[in-house]
Every structure is written in structure tokens, then in C-alpha cells.
Write a structure and sequence with these properties.
The complex is a heterodimer of chains A (258) and B (336). Chain A has 258 residues and is an alpha+beta fold. The N terminus of chain A is likely disordered. In chain A, the strands form 2 sheets. In chain A, strands 3-4-5-6-7-8-9-10-11 form a 9-stranded mixed β-barrel. In chain A, strands 1-2 form a two-stranded antiparallel ribbon. Chain A is globular. Chain A starts with a helix and ends in a 6-residue tail after the last helix. Helices cover 26% and strands 21% of the residues of chain B. With 336 residues, chain B is of the alpha+beta class. Chain B starts with a helix and ends with a helix. Chain B has 7 helices and 12 strands. The chains are: A alpha+beta (258), B alpha+beta (336). Chains A and B meet through strand 4, strand 5 and helix 5 of A and strand 3, strand 4, strand 5 and helix 7 of B.
Chain lengths: 258, 336
């Protein structure tokens, strides 16, 4: 699909951050973010620095363990208010029970971007579809001049986007307070406001940034940044991960006929 | 075109003839442009299979249409005043002897423009789904029942009750709510997003072969191409035996062929042929228009996340078990 584009728009764009050699443009002249993307790293385990640790079931051995990783939070630590920090630490203690990912609930934003599943961007001038393999979740970013107002709180939020030069900027509001940022209990309230920035650093990499604001939980806005990698495999496609079936015994096992 | 004129406003009918040939809008890269937000709300009240009295007649007469329009309008008024109607879909609920209060009136969508279709099934010409194969009969008889009041577990309930999926056809066929869909296009790709349980299908147009037969899914593996102004999508690689089409769980041999054709600025004609020789003795086809409705917005359907009904139903079933066991014990001790 991309090849259709690149022949039409094989130009060299130089940015402060690097060269966009070979990166494609859409018919309306914007950087083409279409494709299948995935984060590689441990942000979904913990946005902050974290050492390796054992999993909850010894039977799973190394497979069930949590890998160590460098944090993706600018400045290292999430600026929690004191009460909220206590809550986060409690969440961490109970993470194998409370993480919404265990229950196959939608990932929310920004977490869906760096969960260990690919997602696909379908870019049009008036709306951009982001389709996540995990739980068949998806969202549509409204690119019209008239912003879409969040009429109801949702897991994936209400997204309005615009271009700032080479960067797709997405403003997200209208979240419920149920999703987490990672498997380590980092959380938010329904006052969450996320501004994401997608910038192609070359044809196959996106610099992803998200500024997170939530006056109920944090003392100030904070930022994460991580790269997204394009799936370049021949005939790469999103496959299906409908995980409800894997969570039913956990969610409803207590009312199953014994 | 005579058929088309029956379900389009008369003033549009003439334009429609030309529309398909020359005026159909194109994308910047030359594909027929199908993009937009659509709904099947207007099909509310059209039965899947054609009632025998209509024979091979696909469209209602003026008088039949006036009756349908009256019913649709009365349902609309009822719903708007916050009351659940007792006609159309809701008469089925009544017949089953179950109060459907779990779905309050404000959840329900209604038709804004009554449809002239006598049924959704258009082929065979009598509008009836062909006979099942013996294997299909078996599968139909053993499928989970919506009105199962004593499920032993979630596995006794449908994939819709479980918020797993309604499959390709179930996501798109008209229902009581969540009838929205959105079509996106870019070079080499069409994406269709369904409101019903937040499904998305990503349809490559680049001629790539289907995924290997070991890679099966609920929504299948779609491949698309354009024939004139029509988008043709062939979908295979389904997981068999779990999700229904036409009231019977389809098999892993299911092949769906869908056709999307824009017939005017607000309307796309949708056609799907169901070919599943392990389930049906012949292929059959459903056809209906989907419409762009000004102001229609697709909302997030967090079905599983809010599926309190599942725990409640199972919990109620266990309470009934307990009640029966206690009564049984009482009866047993009374007989002593």
C-alpha cells in the first residue's frame, strides 16, 4: 500500500530530528502515517524505571516474569499528588488482580499505543482510524476543523487531531477513570487530558509523545516519549485478539455451576 | 432501476440512474468513493426472511408501505416518550414470554424513513433462507439460546451475550441499536468500522492472497477489489460453529461475498452472499441500503466492559439452582 504513495511523493524532507528519506506523503500533502505500528519495550509493564521481577505463578517460570526496563517518563518519575501516589502503590501491590488488561478491558489512551500488540493507522484527510489488535479496540481521530465534543466518558476518549508541520497532534478528552497506564498500577481520573504527538523520524519509525494532564491525580503535566516501529514483514496484517474468552473464568467463575 | 426507484425518493430516482454510471464520486487516487458514516436504522421493522404472503415480491405495495410507515412512526413516538414499544422487534420479545426491561426505551434506535423492503433476504427469490444441511440442523439445535434462564456458565450463552462478537453479518445487519458503520479509504485499503461491539475490518485491495488456513478468526480474513463502482469483498478463514448467520452457527467453510455500491450521495447499496455448503444447501443473499443520516454519531460500545448482565444472569441461575435444591430437599423430607 505504501508503495503506491512513495512513487507519488518520493521527496526528501529534513527535520531537526532527522531525515525523512523515502517517507511517503498523502494526497493532501501530510506525512503518511498509514501502516502497522508497534512499540518495542517495556512501557506497558511500567512507565517508570523498573527491575526484573517474578510473575504471580511460579509454574510459568521465565515466561511469566516481568522484564526490566528503562522508563519512558521525561524526568524519570510521574508527579503524583501524595494521596494519588498511595493509590498507585496500592494498585501496584494488587496489580495481578486489578489491572484492566487482565479482564480484557479496552486499553485507553495512551496505553493502547504501547501495549504488546500492533495497531494499524488508516489515514484520511478528514479522519484517522487507529485500529488496535488488542481487544478489537479502536478510535477515530476527528481531523475536521470543527472539533468533536466529548458527549460521554469512554475508555478510548474523544480525539481531535490537527497537523503542526510534520507532526500529527491529537487532543484527547472525555475519558472514564477506569483504564490504567501500564501493568504497574499507574492510573488517572476522569479529568484525564492527553495530547499526543506522532512524528515520522524516517519511513519506518514514529517518534511518539504523550503529554498527560490530570489535576486530580498529578501535580503538573508530564510527558512520555517512545519510538513506534513499522511492521515491514511481507503481507503483514493485523490479526485478531478478542480476549473476552480468556477472561470469563476469572470474571464469572464464581457463578458457574459447580 | 425500476426497483431502485421504489426505495428512493422519486425526485432522486432519475438522478440515481446517471449516478451509478458517471457521477459516482472518486477518491483523489481514482477509487470509487464510499467513505462516510452510515446507519441501518431505517431497516428496523424489515424481517430477515420474507413473510409468505409477499411471495417473490421484494417491495411493499403503496398500501403495505403506508401501514409500515404508520407502525414505524408510532414506534418512534413511543420510544421518544420513553416507553418500550410492543410492535416490530418488541413483539418477538413479548412472544418469548420474557420481559425485556433490561433494554430500556432510550437504548433503542428507530427508523427515520420507513423501508419498502419486504425482507432482507432477496435470493432465493422467495426471500427465504435455504434449507439446512443435516450438519447445519444439528448446529442450529445445539446453539446457545438467548432466553436460557438457567445457564450453567457463559458457554451456554451466545457470543453476543458474551460481548465477544456478532461476526461480520451480525455487526452490520439492522438491530435494536448500534447500527452505525463508518467506511475509510486510502490507496490499497478500505476499512470498515462497526458500532456493534466496536469491530473494525481492514480490507487490503492489493491482491495479496488470503492468510493461511491455520489463521482463523471471528471476523474472518477479508480481501477486496473494485468492479466498476462496486467494492467487492471476499471473506474466508472464519472460526466455525460459534457465531450465527441467519439463526444458525456457520461453519469454518463460510465464504462471504459483499458488494458495496454507492447509489446516491447519501446511500450505499449493500449486498452479501452467504456461501456455507456445510450449513446451507444453497448460497443465499441479503441486500439492503445503508444511509448517511445527518447528525448520526458512532459511540463507543464498551459491551464487555459493562457486561453486568452476564454475572447477574449466572448469579440468578445459581440462586434458582439453590431454590430448587432446597424445595427438592423439603419435598423429600415431607415424603418420609
Amino acid at each position: 500500500m505504501r508503495t503506491t504513495f512513495s512513487s507519488a511523493a518520493l521527496a526528501v524532507f529534513t527535520l531537526a530530528g532527522g531525515s525523512l528519506l523515502g517517507a511517503a506523503r498523502t494526497f493532501d500533502g501530510h506525512p503518511d502515517l498509514s501502516g502497522i505500528w508497534q512499540s518495542v519495550g517495556t512501557a506497558n509493564w511500567n512507565l517508570e524505571d523498573h527491575p526484573a521481577s517474578p510473575g504471580p505463578f511460579f509454574q510459568l517460570g521465565a515466561i511469566g516474569a516481568t522484564p526490566s526496563g528503562q522508563g519512558v517518563v521525561e524526568g524519570g518519575q510521574i508527579p503524583y499528588k501524595p494521596e494519588a501516589l498511595k493509590q498507585r502503590n496500592e494498585n501496584f501491590q494488587n496489580r495481578w488482580k486489578l489491572d484492566p488488561e487482565i479482564k480484557c478491558y479496552m486499553g485507553g489512551i495512551p496505553r493502547s499505543t504501547y501495549m504488546p500488540y500492533p495497531f494499524q493507522i488508516v489515514q484520511t484527510p478528514t479522519s484517522i482510524l487507529m485500529d488496535y489488535e488488542y481487544a478489537s479496540s479502536n478510535r477515530v481521530i476527528n481531523m475536521e476543523k470543527e472539533p468533536l465534543e466529548a458527549s460521554v466518558d469512554t475508555w478510548m476518549g474523544t480525539a481531535n487531531g490537527h497537523w503542526e508541520g510534520e507532526t500529527l497532534v491529537v487532543d484527547n478528552t472525555g475519558f472514564n477513570d477506569e483504564s490504567w497506564f501500564d501493568r504497574a498500577g499507574n492510573f488517572h481520573s476522569d479529568q484525564l487530558h492527553v495530547v499526543e504527538r506522532f512524528t515520522l523520524r524516517d519511513a519506518d519509525h514514529i517518534n511518539y509523545e504523550a503529554t498527560i494532564e490530570d489535576p486530580q491525580v498529578f501535580t503538573r503535566p508530564w510527558k512520555i516519549s517512545l519510538p513506534l516501529y513499522r511492521h515491514v514483514e511481507k503481507n503483514a496484517q493485523l490479526t485478531e485478539f478478542k480476549c473476552v474468552e480468556f477472561a470469563e473464568e476469572l470474571l464469572y467463575g464464581d457463578v458457574r455451576k459447580k | 432501476m425500476k426497483a431502485l426507484s421504489l426505495f428512493l425518493p422519486v425526485s432522486l430516482a432519475a438522478a440515481c440512474v446517471a449516478f451509478g454510471q458517471t457521477k459516482a464520486p472518486k477518491t483523489a487516487w481514482g477509487d470509487p468513493d464510499l467513505q462516510g458514516v452510515y446507519t441501518t436504522d431505517d431497516l428496523n421493522g424489515v424481517p430477515m426472511e420474507r413473510p409468505a404472503k409477499f411471495g417473490t415480491r421484494r417491495f411493499l405495495t403503496e398500501q403495505e408501505f403506508a401501514e409500515r410507515a404508520k407502525q414505524v412512526s408510532s414506534e418512534r413516538t413511543t420510544i421518544d416518550t420513553g416507553v418500550r414499544p410492543t410492535t416490530g422487534f418488541w413483539s418477538i420479545v413479548k412472544d418469548a414470554g420474557v420481559d425485556a426491561a433490561a433494554a430500556p426505551a432510550q437504548w433503542i434506535e428507530y427508523a427515520r424513513h420507513a423501508s419498502r423492503l419486504s425482507s432482507l433476504v432477496v435470493d432465493p427469490p422467495d426471500g427465504r433462507i435455504p434449507a439446512l444441511t443435516p450438519e447445519g440442523e444439528k448446529r442450529r439445535a445445539s446453539q446457545p439460546q438467548y432466553y436460557n434462564m438457567r445457564p450453567a456458565s457463559w458457554e451456554d450463552l451466545s457470543s453476543y451475550d458474551r460481548c465477544i462478537t456478532r461476526g461480520v453479518t451480525g455487526s452490520f445487519f439492522p438491530s435494536i441499536y448500534g447500527n452505525g458503520s463508518q467506511i475509510f479509504q486510502m490507496p490499497g485499503m478500505v476499512a470498515i468500522r462497526y458500532e456493534m461491539i466496536h469491530e473494525t475490518r481492514l480490507i487490503p485491495l492489493d491482491g495479496r492472497p488470503h492468510a493461511g488456513s491455520g489463521l482463523r478468526s471471528y471476523m474472518g480474513d477479508p480481501r477486496g477489489h473494485f468492479e466498476g463502482n462496486t467494492l467487492v469483498v471476499e471473506t474466508t478463514n472464519f472460526i466455525g460453529g460459534k457465531v450465527d448467520v441467519g439463526g444458525v452457527p456457520y461453519s469454518d467453510a463460510l465464504k462471504l461475498t459483499e458488494r458495496f455500491t454507492r447509489v446516491d450521495a447519501d446511500t450505499i447499496d449493500y449486498k452479501v452472499t452467504v456461501d456455507d455448503p456445510k450449513t446451507f444447501t444453497a448460497p443465499w443473499t441479503v441486500e439492503f441500503p445503508i444511509r448517511h443520516e445527518p447528525g448520526y454519531q458512532i459511540f463507543e460500545y464498551a459491551c464487555h466492559e459493562g457486561n453486568h448482565a452476564m454475572h447477574n444472569r449466572l448469579s440468578a441461575a445459581r440462586a434458582l439452582d439453590k431454590h430448587d435444591a432446597a424445595n427438592g430437599a423439603q419435598e423429600a423430607s415431607g415424603q418420609k
